[in-house]
Amino acid sequence: MQPRDLSAHAPYVPGRGTEEVARDLGLDPDDLTKLSSNENPHGASPKAVEAIEDAAPTVSVYPKTSHTDLTEELAAKWDLESEQVWVSPGADGSIDYLTRAMLEPGDEILEPHPGFSYYSMSARYHHGDANQYEVSKAADFEQTADLVLDTYDGERMVYLTTPHNPTGALFPTEEIEELAESVDDHTLIIVDEAYAEYADEPSAIELLSDYDNIAVLRTFSKAYGLAGLRIGYSCVPESWADAYARVNTPFAASEIACRAALAALADPDHVEKSVESAKWARDYLRAELDVPTWESAGNFVLAEVGDGTAVSEAAQREGVIIRDCTSFGLPGCVRVSCGTEEQTKRAVEVLNRIVSEVPTA
Fold this sequence. Notes:
Elements lengths: L17 H8 L7 E2 L11 H10 L8 H15 L6 E4 L1 H13 L5 E6 L4 H8 L3 E6 L10 H5 L7 E5 L11 H10 L5 E5 L21 E6 L12 E4 L8 H4 L7 H11 L2 H21 L11 E5 L3 H10 L2 E2 L1 E2 L8 E5 L3 H15 L6
Parallel strand pairs: 1-10, 3-4, 3-5, 5-6, 6-7
Antiparallel strand pairs: 2-8, 7-8, 9-12, 11-12
């Protein structure tokens, strides 16, 4: 007995974890600086940590009340009806929910390349397929409606990422509107805003009152510092929001995750601190790294180093973990997450020394 043919499914390649690298190199995890996964270096809000501790005795109970409370809080935050907020286990859970709601077997999605591999993974899990439009290094990773429409061929779902990972490029609101007005009636535009808190741009959620073919993904993993709890959500048009009840996984967002998210929403000062810290760090990285970089609206900076694998491996040996972007199709680049001031300065010092020594690929 064997599973179905999964040969078309490329596995997701995450950034390496601190403990994993420490074991490989025989180092103390506390001596490593991890800037490979775009995590919040300031951690979760103290209010969220307290909520996690308070919720621990209640983990024997299904998260019905907390899920409802979080849904209503998010709906109020974005001035939506509660049915329009689809709480999920991470934003990738929302990707699955939208895929279940939209794709028939054989339907296709259109996704950015480079980009988040789970867009196509989810489509193929649900017996669909994926096509790509190129977010081009030659064009400094600019994202426009025309860029997508040049490749668009009637796909059922089209993914936009703003800020884009791993480049940090924005997809301007007016370009999203142009795209929504240009695609076929059956096409859903999905705007992934995992890093949107770090950008000085309005959310595409504001477009939901005018368009019934846009959905928006959000997460608590980045600016809110709850990556380990896997909690996110999507916002969808009111006209088909009731599909959630038919596609969501029962109780997938845990009691602890929902309670922590509610507490995190109640601590805007922690989010503001995290965002301002990231803005400082990305400015410092762009100013101080001795290699070309791209302007970023996220909590990371893409840098061109010649040989991404060699540079990331060398940095790792010196205790700085960054992301080799070969898996994104950018073998000459690395992505450096925004750390604390101390972490960011250490990364710059190590990387500048390494790129002066590592031969160009």
